[in-house]
């Protein structure tokens, strides 16, 4: 990391996105619904008047000639309507010891979603610190009454890393974040640095990332592999929600209520204020647009909706009958042959004899 010189401070100030936006009544026609390989379903949108307020995104052509989806300068790699989540690529902060100047150099990152629909997922993300003799903090540095936390990662030499295969404090540390977190910045404690161990570990890293997509490798300590393999970024999951009202309150205002499709339902956000819309059971599609929730034809997908007999699709459901000449539970495949009436009659005659 010695080639990365100078101190850089990256700060994304995501002011409320209150530009021109579509009404709650319907998704506007003629808007792009795909950027590169990413689907962009309403309430999200690309360009003016194509999204619900606060959900406008940009589709940019990068230096490699590919179209990529962005929220300001942060790349979005996936959007999920049912989960109310989006996956982004988050900048990795670093601190390195420069042998030539005998000084510490840093690149720090902060992310601000205050006033937007987004908040960091407390279930899926963890603040992750990699390095030897490293203490990094996450929180709001300027406000003493706001969230602040830290994580210490230590290792005295290369030998101490031999048996370290998990992120448990030796070379790597992870800590959870609270719910409804919409802003954070990263900084390193200057009393912990790599000046005395630069010969085998000259850099430390800190980033809020999706925990189940991260695997700690001891080579991250002695090389720049962690930073360069990910091009200085790591996957991050954000939760999003509509407004800051509960379902009960939002449903009172029909002009702004977002769950406008028939067969849709409202769910209160589990991470901060606001609500989400989902299609009702037996329906799929987009609950944020008129007629967006369509009936699922369960009979055409027997892997997900088993039927060991005759399948009949119903609005929001389906039925399954045993084949002719059998009876039982066709859903579970326990249909058995029925005895013929003639055979039953013979049994009855014999019983009376």
Automatic annotation (TrEMBL):
Domain named EGF-like: residues: 295-332
Membrane disposition: Single-pass membrane protein
Cellular component terms per the entry's GO annotation: membrane
InterPro entries recorded: EGF, EGF-like_Ca-bd_dom, EGF-type_Asp/Asn_hydroxyl_site, EGF_Ca-bd_CS, WAK_GUB
Alphabetical list of SUPFAM superfamilies matching this protein: EGF/Laminin
Pfam families to which the protein is assigned, alphabetical: EGF, GUB_WAK_bind
Gene3D superfamilies for this protein: Laminin
Keywords annotated in UniProt: Disulfide bond, EGF-like domain, Repeat, Signal
Keyword Cytoplasm: no
Main location: membrane
Subcellular location: Membrane
Highest taxon of the lineage: Eukaryota
MF-aspect GO terms: calcium ion binding; polysaccharide binding
Signal sequence residues: 1-20
Entry-linked PANTHER family: OSJNBA0016N04.9 PROTEIN
Name by which UniProt lists this protein: EGF-like domain-containing protein
